[in-house]
C-alpha cells in the first residue's frame, strides 16, 4: 500500500549495525564498506533480506510484503427466540450442610438462622440473636419446616440459638418471597429444612464443642435395607454456674441459683422393604429449661441472743420446647407415578 512503517527493524550484517525507522518510515545506517546486507523486519510482514552495492549517500526505498493472513471465518448459528432466561425463582436460596458449618459462627456454635441472616433482605434484629426478620416482617411470620412439618418454637434460650442442630441439617431451602402456594400460613418467608441422609455403607460419627454447648451425631446402616441417624446437643453453661454458686454458698447466707440450658435430640430411621418402597420415621425433641432457686435465712437480734428463722426456699421453673414425630412413605409405580403418605404429631 506504500504506507510508511514506523519502528521497523533494519540490521546490516556487514557492518554489524542497526537502525529503527522513524515516524515517517525513514532509517539511516552508516558503513565504510561499499556493500551492505540488510535484514528488514516488521510485525505482520515478511522479513526481507537485501544485498546492495550503492554509491555513497544514495537513498533506498524498500517495499515489504504482507505476512501470512488467516482466512475469513464465518460463524453460522440459529437465532434463539428468547435472549434472556429468567431463573426459576430468584427469591429461593439453597444451602447445604457444608455451607452452614463453614460460615462464621458466634461462640463457636454453627447456626442455620444466623447464616440466613446474612442474606440480602434479611435482618437479625438484636445483635447476638438468631431470630430473623425478612423484608420488614416479624419473626413469627416465618414458617420453619423440618422434614415437611412445622416447628413452632424456632429458637432456644429466648432467641439466642436456633432449634436446628447444624450437624443434622442436610438441605435448606429458604424462600424470601414468592414462595409456592403449598407453603401456606406465613407472610414473610419459608425455611424448609431436610435432615441429612444417613450413610448406607458405613457408620460415621461427628460432633463439635463450642464455648456454650457440645453436640454429637452418628449415622450408618442397620442392615442392607435400613439406616439410622441419631444426634444430641446440650449447653453446659449452667453446669459451670452451678459449681461456682456452690463454692460461694454458706449456711447462713442467702443463695440465689439460676440455670438456663437447652437440650435437643433427633432420630431418623429409614427402611427400604422393596425397591419401589421407602419408609421413614423422624423424631425430634427439643427442650429449654429455666430454673431460679432462692434460699434465704434471716437472723433477728433479741436482748438475749440472736435468733435465726427457718431456712426459706423458693423455686421458679419455666420450660418450653418442641415434640415432633413424623411417619412417612412413598411407593413408585413406574417412572411417571408415585404415591406418598405422611402421618405427623406435633406438640409445642
Task: Give the gist of this structure.
This protein has 348 residues and is mainly beta. It has helices at 97-102, 112-116, 237-248; strands spanning 9-12, 17-20, 36-41, 48-52, 92-96, 122-123, 133-134, 142-146, 149-150, 155-156, 161-162, 169-175, 189-195, 204-209, 213-223, 226-235, 255-271, 277-296, 299-300, 307-308, 312-332, 338-347.
Secondary structure elements and pairings:
Blueprint: E1 9-12, E2 17-20, E3 36-41, E4 48-52, E5 92-96, H1 97-102, H2 112-116, E6 122-123, E7 133-134, E8 142-146, E9 149-150, E10 155-156, E11 161-162, E12 169-175, E13 189-195, E14 204-209, E15 213-223, E16 226-235, H3 237-248, E17 255-271, E18 277-296, E19 299-300, E20 307-308, E21 312-332, E22 338-347
Parallel strand pairs: 8-13
Antiparallel strand pairs: 1-2, 1-3, 3-4, 5-12, 6-7, 8-9, 10-11, 12-13, 14-15, 15-16, 16-17, 17-18, 18-21, 19-20, 21-22
